[in-house]
Amino acid sequence: MNLDPRYTSDALSARLNRLFYQRLVEMDANSMPVPGLADWSQLSPLHYRFKLNSTVGKYPDGRVLNADDVVMTYRSILDKSHASPYQAALSMIDEVKSIDNETVDFLLKRADPLFPAYLEIEILPADHIENDHPFSSQPYGSGEFEFLRWSEAGHLVIQRRDDGQLFEIVEVKNPLVRTLKLLRGEIDILQNDLSPELLDYLRYQKDIELVQNSGSNFSYLGFNLQDSQTSDLRVRQAVAHAIDHQSIIDKVMRGAARKAETIFPPEHWAGNSDLIAYDFDPKKSRRLLLQAGYGPDNPLTLVYKTSSDPFRIRLATIIQNQLSQVGIHVDIKSYDWGTFFGDIKAGNFQIYSLSWVGIRTPDIFRYIFSSESLPPAGANRGRYTNPAVDDLLKKAEQAETLDRQTRIYREVAAQIHKDLPYVPLWFEDQYAAQGSRVTGFRVSPSGNYDGLSHLKLKKSRGNRHAQAATAH
Amino acid sequence: MIWRWLPLAVMLLWALAAFFGNSLVSGANMVNLDHILDTPGKSGLLGFDDLGRPVLQRLLAGARTSFIVAIGVVTISLMLGTTIGMLAAYQGGWLDLLLVRLIDVFMAFPGILLAIALAGVMGPGLDNLIIALSMVGWVGYARLARGQVLSLRERDHVTAAVALGSSRWVILSRHLLPLLAAPLIVEATFGIAGMVIAEAGLSFLGLGIQPPDASWGSMIRDGTSYMLMAPHLVLAPGVIMLLVVLSLNLLGDQLRDRLDIRFVTEQKMS
Predict the structure, then answer these.
(1) Can you tell me the distance from the alpha carbon of B218 to that of B200, in angstroms, rounded to the nearest whole number?
(2) Domain count, chain A
(3) Is residue A1 situated within a structural domain?
(4) For A330, nearest residue in chain B (alpha carbons)
(5) CA B120 to CA B122: how far, in whole Å?
(6) Least confident residue range of A216-220, A319-323, A423-427, B256-260
């Protein structure tokens, strides 16, 4: 876990940082940028002016966030001597400067109609940046929550600014243990990472209130396109047609997911809802395998890598079973996270399953499907290369209006859907369960913890702390 | 009466399941999404697990796993341990000293930990599991055999055999082994019970037999996540394991009563 927003790369830290800091720009339900700390105007395609608005907060020492903080934060991210993972996405910025105490100008090297969407980054205090404050372990921001203590691993104490309510964030890895703690009242709220059965079980507990929302985290099966077997499009199509998504969603996930066709859900502005699903069709799948030269005498054997999470193994076993129905033999290899992710990045796999978490802007297409993004440069882990897609991605980068960019990204999504470097699986729902002491938590589609700002204690007795549990 | 016949009946069922279960368990690995976590009822006598696989069939498949491992490990340990123990005791001298120290080292080290380490190094799998547990299991038999031989070799019939010029092999196998057999068989019966638990333990930790094949230990591990909704996933393999281990221990007791001459005569006298 690294709580320095400039270097955060894991989902948990990113979710916590949202509580401690403010951002220039926020995302609405369609993932379009809307004003956060600042309202903006586009003076020219290469010149954006941001003016801080009334939502500006104070740092714990009482100082009000100002334009200098914004400038210092972005300069420090773009500083080549720091290896911030956001540098690549912000590479179009030529200069950041403050005009007065409340106005910041961004000058760009190249136009990008989506530029404000890349500014969903936490603003740090300028003086603390200069003093090399250890942000990674002691967050210091102007957000709705103030960081108090992180005395031991997996135990964080934070305080809500407007009413002084204390929150303890506790790490509890095992889903069953978390559920039991919630039922016993040891914790007040938990979010995500339960098996669908536990979720259903909690739904019928009388003291537990369950809040659920459709999610935007995209689960997929990835292929290695440099492998002699999975580089054959017919093999990939055969796999896609052999998976019965709907019955997995209905019977295993108990409806707590929706089918995906591309990385973005349909409500996302760059989502493409015109894509035609690869329907469950074992006959077609068998036919494709025959065409690719595999049959009962010469069955196709694939190695499927997954993490050691029991639910992922369970899904892998179900997919293994469905693929065996069309004559594809699947070997499941499950590894601890480090080994598994290392293998995936090194291209040492045939099929793997993973999810993309917290993706908001369609520049992600370049990061995962451009031929220039092979690891370590990007996340094109399946080594997918298609000149047509590269071409479209360049065009999208140069497009001058958002409309045109949207159209091009939809074309990219369609081409990728056809080429099948990923078999799109589903978007898992986000959910949280609250005990009897609290109410008001809202679940966000990306699973962040922003809902804690609405959480209320029903009545205070004894311990005034609210406790939340996380899985990581 | 029931205590006398129950262990035998359970053992018989266990053996039958292990030998003939294979023809019954064709469905043990069959995923059926319509039956996920179904409770025991009409469609399945013991219900279904988290992938819709029938628990009864998986128990039978697990019986086979635990039978093969337990019998395999005890057979190997028994042969290895007895040979080493008898050799050490009869030969004496530096060989005895060396082997006794080796046995002491193995005894001092927690057995299950060593088995975990070995299974971890060699990788999971049924054969590696048997090897790992045998590496730990032989020590008990070796110590027992050595102790017995040390006292038995002073008996008159052994001295007579030596005087008659019998070879060492004949003395060990004809004059000593038959007398050793009784305590070793008793020890082995308890050993089988221990190995059933050890196999389940290693499978519970994911070091034993690999999915989708069934083992009682891995069934319990998979079931713990669903304890609130579907307790039958943990209860069924747990109760079966309890019955088997209890029966083995009762059987061991009975065997000891029957094979131990002193005990039998004492009972007759009283």
Answers:
(1) 7
(2) 3
(3) no
(4) B212
(5) 6
(6) B256-260
Please check whether residue A364 is in contact with residue A263, taking contact to mean a CB–CB distance below 8 angstroms.
yes
Are residues A403 and A299 located together in one domain of the fold? yes
- A398 and A366 housed in the same domain: yes
Taking alpha carbons only, the member of B261, B233, B133 closest to residue B191 is B133
Q: Tens of pLDDT along A232-257?
A: 999 999 999 999 999 999 999 988 89
The shortest C-alpha distance from A310 to chain B (Å) reads 8
b/e code B152-178 from CB counts within 10 Å (16+ = b): bbeeeebeebeeeeeeeeebbeebbbe
Q: Are residues A168 and A186 in the same domain?
A: yes
Residue recorded with tokens 């009682």: B216
Same domain, yes or no: A112 and A244: no
Whether residues A356 and A367 share a domain: the answer is yes
pLDDT in tens, A348-388: 999 999 999 878 888 889 889 999 888 887 889 999 999 99
Whichever domain contains A58, its CATH number is 3.90.76.10
B228 and A252 in contact by Cβ < 8 A?
A: no
Question: Is the N-terminal amide bond of A376 cis, ω within 30° of 0?
Answer: yes
For A222, the domain range is 218-428
pTM, 2 dp: 0.80
Could you tell me the CA-to-CA distances from B224 to A176, B162, B214 in Å, in that order?
8, 60, 15
Both A263 and A333 in one domain: the answer is yes
d(CA B237, CA B5): 22
Residues A449, A424, single domain; the answer is no
The one-letter amino acid code at A33 reads P
Residues in A touching B35 (Cβ below 8 Å)? none
| Contact between residue A128 and residue A76 where contact means Cβ atoms under 8 Å apart | no
What CATH number is given to the structural domain containing A336?
A: 3.10.105.10
If asked whether residues A362 and A400 sit together in one domain, one would say: yes
Is A49 in a helix, a strand, or coil? strand
Alpha carbon distance A77, A87 (integer Å) = 6
Give whole-number Cα distances, A62 to A57, A138, A165, A166, B86, in Å: 9, 17, 19, 19, 83
Which tokens belong to B259?
A: 């094979």
Collect all residues from A whose CB is shorter than 8 A from any CB in B.
Answer: 175-176, 179-180, 195, 197-198, 200-201, 247-248, 251-252, 310, 313-314, 317-318, 321, 332
Select from A175, A198, A317 the Cβ nearest to the Cβ of B211: A317
Q: Is the ipTM of this complex over 0.85?
A: no
